[in-house]
Design a protein that fits this description.
Elements: H1 9-13, H2 29-33, H3 40-46, H4 62-69, E1 83-86, E2 95-97, E3 100-112, E4 114-117, E5 122-129, E6 134-136, E7 138-144, E8 148-155, E9 161-164, E10 176-179, E11 184-190, E12 195-202, E13 207-208, E14 211-212, E15 220-226, E16 237-246, E17 254-259, E18 270-273, E19 278-284, E20 290-294, E21 299-306, E22 310-312, E23 319-321, E24 323-326, E25 330-336, E26 342-348, H5 374-380, E27 386-392, E28 409-418, E29 427-434, E30 450-453, E31 458-464, E32 472-475, E33 491-492, E34 495-496, E35 505-510, E36 516-522, E37 534-540, E38 551-558, E39 568-570, E40 579-581, E41 587-593, E42 601-607, E43 610-611, E44 613-619, E45 622-623, E46 631-633, E47 637-639, E48 644-649, E49 655-662, E50 668-676
Parallel strand pairs: 1-3, 1-6, 3-8, 7-15, 16-19, 18-27, 28-31, 30-37, 38-41, 40-50
Antiparallel strand pairs: 2-3, 3-5, 8-11, 9-10, 9-12, 12-15, 13-14, 16-17, 19-25, 20-24, 20-26, 21-22, 21-23, 21-25, 26-27, 28-29, 31-35, 32-36, 33-34, 36-37, 38-39, 41-48, 42-43, 42-47, 42-49, 44-45, 44-46, 44-48, 49-50
Amino acid sequence: MKILLVIISAFLTAFVFSAIDKPTEKISLRKYESGAAVNKEIKAIAKKIISCSPGTSNINNSKDEMKMHGKKQYFPTPPDTEEIFPNDNKQTAGVLQNGILTVNLEARDGTWFPESHDGKGIHVFAFAEKGKELQLPGPQIRVPEGTVIKATIHNTLDAPLVLYGFNTRPANITDTIKIAPGATYESIFNAGAAGTYFYRASASDSLDDGLPFFSDSQLYGAFIIDPPNHKPDPQERVIMIGIWNDTLNGPYNGEELVMNGMTWPYTERLTYKQEQEVNWRIINSSIQPHPMHLHGFYYTVKSKGNLYRDSIFENQNRYKAVTELLQPGETTSLQWIPERAGNWLFHCHTLVHIMAGSFLRNVPSMEEIDPKDLQSHVQNAMGGLIMGLHVLPSGKKMVAQKVNKSKERKLTLIIKEKPNWYDTLMGNGFILLEDNQPSDKKVYIPGPPIILNRDEPVSIKVINKLKEATTVHWHGLEIESYFDGVSGWGNIGKKLAPMIQPNDSFTVHLTPPRSGTFIYHTHMHNLQLLAGMYGPIIVKDPEEKYDMEKNRIFLIGQGGADVEDRIFFINGKKDNDTLSIVPDKSYRFRVINITALAPRLTVSIMHNGLPANWKMIAKDGADLSVNQQIKKLSLKQTVSIGETYDFEFEPTEEGDYLFEVRTFGGQLLVSKMIRAWSKP
């Protein structure tokens, strides 16, 4: 039986056990995606979780970390072992001379500290240049197109090394190299076509879908080929995503999710200036999918590829996104401009990939963290695949944006419990009010659509009527850092965004600069999202009247922890009513995935057993170019967590159409009937 992916228990266990390494039951992302129940024990544990967002520190060495965290523990590198050091991918391995890169690599074992020396080390295999320190990721290979690679790879391990990626690009999936223990392999090959690639290896028979996950899971490194006569951006960053987990030594013993070898809050902080062009290459070298979300800004997707080949998009085929799914082994290159100063995040949007906790070090329990202590929260209440971004103002001093409050439209969003939301579940929902409108006391899950006008300033007073602290993120909106919803991290100067305490409020000021489909949702990394704390935001052109008949929202969410069968919903319902539309009339279908644990959902519209046609017109609130708006079959369109898509749909004949939400493997999770009939 295949080893289960994305083990949620690692993150949750650390919140309630002070002793590390205590095993607990494992729960996989595949079980969630198949609609299986969330374990009741995990629900009881997760109720204690309170989280906000990361802190502001820039960690450089373990002594500074101990001082900052107030920890007394320090875990040294064990005797007679090598330490594996994080690699920021700023340097290229080997020597490039006369068009030939000569590089000598070794695979060795060592001790890796993904949480620095604050936590215990993990014994793994890693790559190094011969005679140099072990690195994670492995040494980066970066050359111009046309370069000849002259490589030797020495295997010092006790197991055979199966090596991938030391060949000309594009390459075949079958192109592998097997290196016996103690042996050295020599290879001379042309680098091949420009693109974003990587190399990797395995050194055991313990594989998940053909990929290593345990001691050999960190045998990978970047392989970048630049176009000829092209000077690379010296500020460009290459970020590699990795995962280590242990399902061999018991039911479950832990999981580490890392970006360039480190996990939050130990990941590198990246600093930019306003209007500076930012170029990234993101490589998912892990065994799991990751929807990568950038707060506050759009990035342009310039390429998508994998270990073997890359597709670099022409300008007319590039597109904007705030969230982009990277499948296991997938690569991408991104470009973005930070228009506004402040603190921002770049992170995976799968909940269990950004939850706090550790089996390597002692962390305070959620009960021990004062919800008003933002610094403690930012360091201890979030973890995993997160990088912190600091955007410096163009001037010497950060100046807060002036808001003309007299011209603002005023909304109130009340967060409140909803008893018996699904069967006996207690949910967390929303009440939306305009100006001084009295509340009808009806709590909606998901929250009601917030309809805004492009370029119109609005204030939204968020009132927390829950028994626990919370915060709301305005996903996809180009908003000031202080109002972005990341408590203790978003800022105006030195003023940090607060947690919204019970019976307290926080007013958000924003002016949406573009029309599109967006999301509001909790930015607490507990089960608040699974309790229903999300809703759609629709930004329209100011001269346009929002037509609810023409605009149809399909918001896919995930249910609470007591659901015993399917836990997926469309617009808050498991058993959906029928949507009535008219043939030969054009509709705008706005599709949103804001589940917690389902990054590879697919959607289709089926008619008489066959997929109907639709036209994709926008992604994440940004319009696609005209040449990308192509009518095609609505079959298995992937919609990942944090993605929104707008489709133009026009039924060509009367009858029943079925909007289906399925797993990546094809299992039906939830559906909604669409009935197209002519009006009498």
